[in-house]
User: Fold these one by one.
Assistant:
Number 1:
Amino acid sequence: MRNGTKTIALALFVTIGLATSDLGYAHDAKIDERLTDSTSYWTNQSGSTMALTFDCNGSQPGVCQLSGVYVNNATGFNCQGTPYPLVGVYYINTQTVSWSVAWSNAFEDCASVTGWTGYLSFSSSSLQLVTYWNLAYSTGGSGRAIMQGQDTFTQNPALSSGSLLKDSGDK
Ligand code: BTN
């Protein structure tokens, strides 16, 4: 390849690269806009649901405080079917997230707590939260343990807060 052709090829490569990264940034920013300062509803692969409220107007720029409720519907676990408060944090620049639920409410106390950590992803035309979790619990005596696993949550735009419970009239 002659030097002139090489220069043109390099210039094209750089221009296309910059244009693509700009598009990527704009796309990501749009994802954040759909969540920040609003409540969104999510369901994981085990049928558990949560309402997440993103408060991005706090003292730390780029950091959103998360609050909401989590309803565990995963088989093989206790504390199912009623809402538990959740708290967490979302980092806008990295689109990473972390939240926790203490499994104690007016209906049931499982003496346990779960923390999820992961990232926001745009896949199959929907928003997903891809996470790993740790569930720490005490059996009441000297027995303590930590279980680990993976959860992927898909945003469900059709859910309202009233439909977070499978049958909200029962709880
Ligand atoms: C317990 O059994 O001690 C409390 C309920 C734990 C439910 C776990 S948390 C991680 C996983 N994802 C879910 O949606 N449910 C289970």
Note: DSSP finds one helix and eight strands in the chain.
Number 2:
Amino acid sequence: MSMIYEKSFGFEQEMKEKGVGLIFILSAPSGAGKTTLVKGVMEQLPGLRFSVSFTTRLPRPNEKEGEDYHFVSHSVFQKMLEKNEFLEWAEVLGNRYGTPRPDLKKLRSEEMDLILDIDTQGTKKVLKEVDQPILIYLLPPSLKVLRERLMQRGFDSLEMVKFRLSNAKKDMEEASGYHYVVVNERMEEAIEKLKSIIIAERCRRSKVSIIEKNMKQWEDKDG
Ligand code: 5GP
């Protein structure tokens, strides 16, 4: 076996361990399993940070302040809005949700990527502010499964479930404008797909720096 095969430069490994300052936007109708998916991916793939949104919605029994959302009053939200502290914000089903402005330089220098969990309205606004975010839409396997999941989790009244479903239909019509669509049929498979997308995008965006590093190693070796 030649030396080249024996001694890899380790770039592939790097992509699996480090972020490169990318913004991933993950959208899905409520009940598609987005929270579990993001948690699963973050446990398995280093270099990822979750952007914790601010919301005026009340916390659900399983939600933690600062982890799932920052739960704030309408007046606090309004003040933040007036101070231009949000990258984007939207009203979803009567509540307000806002994404804090990310520090992109810091993100890159800390070798992290950021995941934004926002709806399709928010995505359109982020596209105007951020350079080349990667858009991923998570679909439930069927309308029937989505309805069952929303009923089973028991957070909403029947009226609210119906409202969420009609909203979900409108939201899903936007999915074709996203770069990737992942169907959440089996959670483990969806996690694998999302990890693959993130690693592939890291490789793609690091193309120039990988080539430069590679060339430098050859020059150092020859010199
Ligand atoms: P839920 O109340 O079920 O957590 O979220 C309702 C919807 O609000 C979801 O579609 C979710 O993606 C969206 N959402 C959560 N945070 C934000 C945000 O910061 N901005 C926008 N535009 N949507 C958000």
Note: The chain has one domain: 3-51+102-222.
Number 3:
Amino acid sequence: MKETPTEAQIASHRLMLRAGMIRQSSAGIYSWLPMGFRVLRNIEQIVREEQDRAGAQEMLMPTIQSAELWRKSGRYDDYGKEMLRIIDRGERELLYGPTNEELITDIFASSVRSYRDLPKNLYHIQWKFRDEIRPRFGVMRGREFLMKDAYSFDLEKEGAEQSYLKMFVAYLRTFARLGLRAVPVQADPGAIGGNMSHEFHILADTGESDLYFDAAFEEYTAEQMLKADFGMVKDLRGLYAAADEKHDAANCPVPDGQLRQRKGIEVGHIFYFGTKYSAPMGAAVTSSTGEQVNVEMGSYGIGVSRLVGAIIEASHDEKGIIWPESVAPWKAALINLRYGDAECTAAADGLYEKFQNAGVATLYDDRDERPGVKFADADLIGIPWHVTVGPRGVKAGVVEFKNRATGETVEITPEAALNRLAVKA
Ligand code: ATP
Ligand code: MG
């Protein structure tokens, strides 16, 4: 889009529309256009790899669920207007799933019988629907959105705590790989009590939550987060972090100079809830002593589609998006500066083929456009590395090699450009 869309109030929404990543189909419901879809899939893949690494197993549950299941847990009435309810031709009541505790518990109850099959953690990455009162900020608060939701099953509370810690570690690693600094904030544990409920927030001025936290969080580097273990989780849980409804200035343990106040975007939530669903839905296993025991459960969500917006909120400038390499739609933009010039075009075509053979994900800008337009578009869509082939450079045997994040530009040979991109793959 050439014009700045007027309906978009925040940077990520504006940039996603201008860059052609998404298109609104109705309020809070979006189509993912090719570039947006590439980013969404890259994020999804990192989330998946870290879930797998933590020992969770991927499956896929449907978007449409039966009302009957939700009546068993008592949530069919409780959920209220956020739930999209559907009647089929046989007058059966269905709904578009806003989350999956009921369905997974039902699957577990009918498939797992013995304590020997525990612990177990099952997840899927599936579209959800919540009829939000105020869908806004593009994909950040959509009505239809992509969520990763995992569910753990353990025989006892101690096991459930281990499952919880594993997910905590997986989340720290996931957000670090996405190029984000996420602050774990203790959240409301509901009726169950305790302290096993954490929301993970990205710091950004456009966040909807007010956070208060210990400045010590800012000292953790991405490298440290990638090495996260139970010990680090313990340290992080020992640091103060609260959302405004829980923060009490008079009783805050952190001294003024050490307390940070920032806005946060919730990108994940992990939650232990004991037998809240297993008891009413009959998810019990036989213990080693032959008793029937309701399983201890937890659920672990990540807002995959919200993350696309959240990453942009955390990483952009006045020219456009700055993608972390791990999620970028393409690693390199190859810009042919002079479309009409046969020599220049032959050089750019040749380089594109080499990039492809080397497995460097490349967007080739071979449009008949002015250089200024091409540079501005490459900056707007935020591709990490820009390789520009122009007539003068072709004669001298060099290309321009630019880092989108720093703006630093060097002239190097095409081979050197290829090496730098291929090595970093
Ligand atoms: P929020 O307080 O932002 O409404 P929530 O507490 O309702 O979130 P959960 O039920 O914990 O969210 O869902 C897990 C994750 O799904 C959230 O951490 C968030 O990242 C994402 N999410 C929730 N609602 C939406 C939405 N309307 N659009 C996009 N992502 C969402
Ligand atoms: Mg919500």
Note: The longest helix spans residues 157-177.
